[in-house]
Write a structure and sequence with these properties.
By secondary structure, the protein is α+β, with helices and mostly antiparallel strands. The protein is built from eleven helices and twelve strands.
Length: 361
């Protein structure tokens, strides 16, 4: 049984429910040039279909294993929303997944994003996706698709959420970590660009405790507003590490230092019988970490299991190859720190010597 429309009642549209299809179409058109800028072999980086296509045969692998990773940005988004600084949060989104791919020896091939908001602003959406495209260019991944969801009632005001999904490939015989990690292998650290994208629930609590607004000069970087300084994007290590992996057989493992810090992430790539001995005095922690520690009277142990504390990636190397790997990575623009050594495990999986140099400026 069907019912005719009642001519005496107002017609209700999707727009009346808070969803603007035209705004969604406008965003797609605005980001098409950004998406095209991420083209690479295997993907023409066109969007608009029901799914993204990637031709693995064009990449040239012999015996590939696919590797997938997914992540978000966490409550760092809250600072981006409150400050209106939206251009770099997409870099963080890509970084969190592609850095997880490369630690398994994989080359990122493509990326898809999910952007959800209460009311779609095409201009703001284009700035966010522009950051995603920049992250893809930095990592060599093609942005082949995604989803934009306008969900009134789910998100308030200008709130939004981001999630990302990356797929990469690695030759079967090059998967990391290698099983031959043992005592005497060395540990190299690659410097982080700051807090990256972990620990921001604590960061925001400490900002509140400090009484500073996000528009105030950052105590640890007075030339920048606090909000902008805290939104420094996550460093993407993919291209330098892939170059090092292709140049040397001396890299045995990589560890992306995210939530949990060195304390929780290094054991994920080490054999059960081994431990990492790290000299903390060699780490020049960026001033933001000193400010956070001082503002909250945060203990060093808590800092080390919450933040990266200045080390965004750790490399386990064969001792004989360590110097050559460090030289290559420095030539690629990385700041490389000789952190310590792998030893036989006696108790903890990560053993610390010395103290972190936590200075606020």
């Amino acid at each position: 049984m069907t019912a005719d429309n009642d001519p005496g009642r107002d017609s209700v549209s999707y727009s009346d429910a808070g969803v603007d299809i035209d705004a969604g179409n406008a965003l797609v058109e605005a980001i098409k040039p950004l998406v095209k800028s991420t083209r690479r072999p295997g993907a023409d980086a066109e969007i608009g279909g029901f799914g993204g296509l990637f031709d693995l045969a064009k990449v040239g692998y012999r015996d590939p294993v696919l590797v997938a990773a997914t992540d978000g940005v966490g409550t760092k988004l809250k600072i981006a929303i409150e400050t209106g600084i939206l251009d770099t949060i997409g870099i963080d989104l890509v970084a969190m997944s592609v850095n997880d791919l490369v630690v398994q020896g994989a080359e990122p091939l493509f990326f898809l994003d999910y952007f959800a908001t209460g009311k779609l602003d095409p201009a703001a959406g284009a700035r966010i996706v522009g950051g995603v495209a920049e992250g893809c260019r930095q990592s060599g991944a093609a942005l082949i698709g995604g989803e934009t969801a306008e969900m009134p009632g789910m998100y308030a005001g200008k709130d939004f959420d981001l999630a990302g999904f990356a797929v990469g490939a690695v030759e079967r015989d090059a998967i990391l970590p290698r099983p031959d990690i043992g005592p005497g292998d060395r540990l190299l650290g690659l410097a982080s660009s700051g807090v990256h994208s972990n620990g921001y629930s604590l960061v925001r609590k400490l900002v509140e405790r400090s009484g500073l607004g996000y528009d105030a000069p950052a105590p640890f970087e007075p030339s920048s507003p606090l909000g902008k300084a805290l939104l420094t994007p996550t460093r993407i290590y993919v291209k330098p590490l892939l170059k090092a992996l292709r140049a040397s057989k001396g890299i045995k493992a990589l560890a992306h230092i995210t939530g949990g810090g060195l304390t929780e992430n290094l054991p994920r790539v080490l054999p059960a019988a081994t431990a990492a001995r790290i000299d903390l005095s060699r780490i020049a922690a960026p001033p933001v970490f000193g400010w956070l520690a001082q503002t909250g009277n945060v203990e060093e142990r808590e800092m080390l299991r919450t933040f990266n504390c200045g080390i965004g990636m750790v490399i386990v190397t064969a001792a004989a190859e360590t110097d050559a790997i460090a030289k290559l990575l420095r030539a690629e623009g990385e700041t490389v720190i000789d952190l310590g050594v792998i030893e036989q495990r006696r108790d903890a999986a990560v053993v610390y010597d010395g103290k972190l140099g936590l200075k606020a400026n």
